[in-house]
Amino acid sequence: MPAPTDHMPPLDLGLSAQEQQRIARIGEELREGIESLADIGPAVSIFGSARSQPDDWEYQSSRQLAKILSARGITVITGGGPGVMEAGNLGASEENGKSVGLNIELPHEQLANPYLDIDLDFRYFFTRKFLLIRYAIGFAIFPGGFGTADELFELLTLVQTGKLKQRPIVLVGEEYWGGLYQWLVQHMQASGFIGDDDLAYLDIVADADAAAEILLTYYNNGCG
Q1: Digit-coded pLDDT (tens) for 96-143
Q2: Which tens digits make up the pLDDT trace of 63-92?
Q3: Domains in the chain: ranges and CATH
């Protein structure tokens, strides 16, 4: 059988037209994302709530962290929406740094924030999350809801299973994240559902300066 080429039609696997269209959309999202982000250099992905307001501490902390990172030539990647994401992109733009947003199409329409150099839209959460992770040397996770928690636990799972090389996963906000950390210790770890060393993947810090110190130390050491 000849090797497939770009000029050969796709194999007919008995899939419905709807499934073939879905596969094509997924492939196109990945292709466009990889092509768009291939040259962004070292980056940090910032996660957090879309509902945070400019006066909230996590908004200002995300903005400050992005400014610190951008001043060191590190690209800032966010989910592209409002709240903590907007703050990260704003901070990057204020330092003339590279500012990337990977927005998701939602029924209630999450509009991209206006501080983006690269603005990509995604239909599928899993392609978006893949690209939020792929180019990052580390991650800063601010207070958020289900989406933020999903991103956090996916990162922990990838590192634990060896699918992602260990790198900083920094939870910003000791009061917000402290209860979750204690639950992990008292229930997951105590029950033997995670190993004794698994929580070492996490750092919990109070503010942007402490988060920046961890991320920049990793960067300065050659990213591990």
Answers
A1: 999 999 998 887 757 899 999 999 999 989 999 999 999 999 999 999
A2: 999 999 999 999 999 999 999 999 999 999
A3: 17-220 (3.40.50.450)
Q: What share of the chain is helix, strand, coil (3-state, %, to 5)?
A: 45, 15, 40
| Residue in this structure with the two tokens 């980056």, named with its chain if needed | 43
Inter-CA distances, 99 with 12, 65, 79, 90, Å: 41, 13, 11, 8
Q: Looking at residue 141, what DSSP letter applies?
A: E
d(CA 190, CA 167): 25
Q: Three-class SS of residue 210?
A: helix
Residues 86 and 60: beta-carbon distance below 8 Å = no
Tokens of 185: 């210790």
What are the angstrom distances between the C-alpha of 79 and each of 13, 67, 88, 139, 145?
34, 17, 10, 12, 14
Main-chain dihedrals φ then ψ at residue 104, nearest 5 degrees? -120, 140
Query: CA–CA separation, 211 vs 206, rounded Å?
Result: 8
d(CA 58, CA 14) in angstroms, rounded, equals 50
Q: What tokens were used for 220?
A: 């300065």
- Asked whether the beta carbons of 83 and 105 are under 8 A apart, the reply is no
- Residue pair 219/42 in contact by the 8 Å Cβ criterion: yes
